[in-house]
Every structure is written in structure tokens, then in C-alpha cells.
Amino acid sequence: MRYRFFGKTDVGKKRSHNEDALLYDETHGLVVVADGMGGHAAGEIASSIAVEVIYEFIKTMDREGEVTWPFEYDNNYSFEANLLMAGINLANNKILQKVDENSKLKGMGTTVVAGIFKGDRVTIAHIGDSRAYFFRDGKLNLITEDHSWVNEQLKKGIISEEQARAHPFKNVVTQALGSGEKLMVDIDEVKVEEGDVFLFCSDGVNSMLSNDEMQIIFEKNYEDIEKLARALIDGANQAGGDDNITVITVGAFK
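Given the sequence above, the corresponding C-alpha cells read:
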């Protein structure tokens, strides 16, 4: 399987600066989206650290091969899953270290959703409410499950999806890098089929667009991943653009 990657970020209509960060590297099949939080531009620092540390760790492991694994290796997961979990935990430690060094950064953190495409499989790791989706046979499917207060209420049936999108606590996450030393990273693995299109995004997309609205955008644009990414950003901005908007689209072909 071969893959095409495209990524784009936009400040949105309501924010003065962009606290999102993204990275995609075709050589390593790696994608990372991080949505930072914290005042005084600290969110930008946290998201940048997350992207950079994960990327550098993946590159180092690929280049050097025999290196000391920074955390306990979990044999219940694949090598790619362990790579992502270790990279995310290293980024978390770096963020906590930065806060210790500078009290003005206290409270900064970031979500992360990251994936490694290898062969006919993608391994996805996430913390927080940034998401991964895939589009197959005309249907958009959500892969990740938000670590958020609103999602917990949604799962319990206390609020509806429409209420969740407009809820005043919709940006409250229950897990994020920078929130503590112990992270519970969620792992998903998807077998890729020819023609699949994947989306990695910050919540600036799905907080503005319903699943049905995103489905329509995919139906119209899935054959061109660059056009699709731009259409999702345009759609989120047209719906209000309340937050920064970041997307990475990945197309699979033989």
C-alpha cells in the first residue's frame, strides 16, 4: 500500500493566534496533530513540543535501531503502537519539565492524535479530543473516542450529540499531555484498504461540523485529499470558526 499525505492549519474566525501544530512525514508514514491549551501562548509551546518530540523519537528509532527503550515495552501492543506511546510519554515529560523550569507556563498542555501508516495497517494513538476518522465505501467512520467531559456525558445518554457540540464544557478534556506524569494512551489499529481516506484533526473541525456535514464534504471531495482538507477547513470557518482548525488527510492506493 502507498499513501499520499496533505496537511493544513488555520487560525479560524475567533482566535487571535493558532495553538495547533501538525506534522506529516511520508518517509516514516507518520502524522501528528496537537491542539494546545494554556494562556500566554503556552498552548503553542505545548503543541509544538509534542509534535517535535514524537517526530524526533520516531526518526531516532528508525535511524539507530538498537537503542535503549525509554519506557517499559508493552508486548500486548505492536511495535508501532509502542513507538507512539513512548513518543507521547516523552513529549509529556518534556512539557512537564518546561513547566517546572518556567512557572509562567503552568497549566499548559496539549491533545495529540498520531498515526503510523505501514504496509496495509495504520496504528493510531491519541490523548484528548483530537480525532482520527476514515472514509470507506462512501461512509465516514470515527476511529478515536474523545477523552472529554462532554463525551462522558454523551456515552451515559445524559446529553445528545447536538447538545454536546454546543455545550459550554465542550472544550474540557479529561486527559492531555502536561496534565500529569501518568498518561493512559488509547491505541487503535485499522487494516487499510485501497481507496481509504483518513482524517486526523483538531476539534476545531468536529466542534463546528456535525457528522452528517462532514460526511457530505467527504462524499464531494474524497478523491482529492488536498481539496478535501481545504473543504473541511472552509466548512468549519463557514460554520463559525470558533477554534483553530487543523487537518491532515491521507489517501491509500496500491
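The first helix runs from residue 42 to 64. Try to locate this feature in the C-alpha cell string yourself.
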